[in-house]
Amino acid sequence: MFLSASPVPQTGVSGVRHSTFGSLRLGRSSHSIASGLLCFWDSLNFKKDREFMGITILFLDENIP
Questions:
Q1: Listed residue (56, 17, 63, 62) closest to 39, CA to CA
Q2: 9-64, pLDDT tens digit by residue?
Q3: Using H for helix, E for strand and C for coil, what is the string for the chain?
Q4: d(Cα 24, Cα 31) in Å, to the nearest integer?
Q5: Nearest-angstrom CA–CA distance, 14 and 39
Q6: What is the superkingdom listed in this entry's lineage (predicted)?
Q7: What's the distance, CA 41 to chain centroid?
């Protein structure tokens, strides 16, 4: 499965064109997709009446050369 997207004009890195996930379409393309993912998890201690213990944050990012 291949995805293609219509570029969205933005300022930033020259030569890099940005697109939104909503503009992705199925089909052949020579472009690649780079994305970031940010997730939050909260931790509860069920042995101590569901006491809040903390938040874990995970951020994954693709570096565009």
A1: 56
A2: 444 556 666 667 677 777 787 766 666 667 777 888 888 887 888 877 777 666 55
A3: CCEEECCECCCCCCCCCECCHHHEEECCCCCCCCCEEEEEEEEEEHHHCCEEEEEEEEEEECCCC
A4: 11
A5: 29
A6: Eukaryota
A7: 16
Q: How far is CA 60 from CA 1, 13, 36, in A?
A: 23, 20, 6
How do the domains of the chain map onto residue ranges?
3-61
Return the pLDDT at 61: 65
Tell me, what's the pLDDT at 56?
A: 76
Collect all residues with Cβ–Cβ distance below 8 Å to 39 and sequence separation of at least 6.
Answer: 57, 58, 59
